[in-house]
Amino acid sequence: MEPKDTTISEAFKGFTNEKCPFLPCHQGVKREFNCLFCYCPLIAYECPGPYKTYTDRNGLTRKDCSGCALPHDGYVQSWNFIQKWLEYPQPWSGKPQTDPPVARPKPAPGAAEAAAAAHRRPKAD
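and the corresponding structure tokens:
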């Protein structure tokens, strides 16, 4: 059992750094601004958030997620959004986002449970 499963408090799901000089870094946030995902854990994965692509100075294609407010819009909402997408992450293809975004494939039966079980296994020394 994870500690988050034993508490009724949802304080771990977010916070707002009122002293951040960049706040608000994303426009369009309608609920409390969640700074927990300042650097989005979905940057390496396909996601429904609006993003553009660019080529960096080393010639690598990168995601520009500056137009996305999904991980910042409300503590509970953004927490649930990130957790949902991390249950079955799909590596980002390196291609621009389609309009509408391509739906992620459904996990094979039992895949989510197997991934969760693998995450819970103690690591060997």
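(Above: one complete record from the training split.) The first strand starts at residue 52 and ends at 55.
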